[in-house]
Amino acid sequence: MIPTRKTAALPSGTALAACVLLLFSGCGRREGHAVNVMGSTSVQPFAELVSEEYIRLHPDKRVEVQGGGSTAGIQALASGLAEIGMCSRSLKPQEASDAVPLTIARDALAIVVHRSNPISDLSIQQLREVFAGRVADWKDVGGKPGPVRVITREEGSGTREAFTQLVMAKARISDRALTQESNGCVRELVEGDRASIGYMSLGLVGDAVKPVRVDDITPTHENVLNNSYKLVRPFLFVTNERTGPQAREFIDFILSDKGQSILEEEGLVRAR
User: Fold this and answer.
1) Do domains 19-106+234-270 and 108-232 have the same CATH topology?
2) 19-106+234-270 has which fold?
3) 68 beta partners
4) In the CATH hierarchy, which top-level class contains the domain 108-232?
5) Using CA atoms, how far apart are residues 144 and 116, in angstroms rounded to an integer?
6) pLDDT, tens digit, for every residue of 146-193?
7) What is the pTM of this model?
8) Residues 6+ apart with CB under 8 A from 32
9) 1 CB-near residues (< 8 Å, 6+ apart)
10) Which SS3 state, helix, strand or coil, does residue 42 take?
11) Is the distance from CB of 125 to CB of 136 less than 8 angstroms?
12) If you placed Cys at 40, which of 12, 31, 86, 216 could pair as Cys (CB 3.0 to 4.6 Å)?
């Protein structure tokens, strides 16, 4: 005799209706529309911090923040995968035609070396020579004899594009440079390599590596405010016509005094 499979009893019409209602009301609201924010891995940790406070104050709201790089964020906005793109560089002309940039903060690019490196100051010209690969020994820029190991960010990174614009002029970053895909990876590599030099967001430097002065100006919050430190780039939220009201509410929060205070506490400079 062939055994028969028991099937689960279907809910009654009343029970089924109740289940459907739960999906659209009450606890089901937390599973509703989420504001998708995508892009720069430099902006990402700061946006995550602000979103956590925003959700704490507004438990019925949802914000999902993802990295991928500035260029990826602009592309995600254009394709509808994100309502807000994050960008850590100025928009290119072809990007600005279909998107609206909004500065949420300013960030300094810090040049970082191993904590044991005696180098404490480099000029823009020296940085250009180092990152172009034309200086291969620390003694040529006032350090102890030894190889220079250059660390850069990946193509499409807003941090790399900002560094290229601010430092490299028409020179290219050396093909021999080691490429990393986040500020954290750059910091980790510099921390473990006495010969290395890299660049990263000042707000994420911490104590593991040593930021150097550039043209005798220390990268600090105060020196960004008074415009004496020149390696400064915007942190942008980018929107378009598909950016909805919930996304714009989150933007209003990050531009509010509360949101700006969170960013300032993490080492960024207020947009306003």
Assistant:
1) yes
2) D-Maltodextrin-Binding Protein; domain 2 (3.40.190)
3) 39
4) alpha beta
5) 11
6) 999 999 999 988 899 999 999 999 899 999 999 999 999 999 999 999
7) 0.75
8) 62
9) none
10) coil
11) no
12) 86
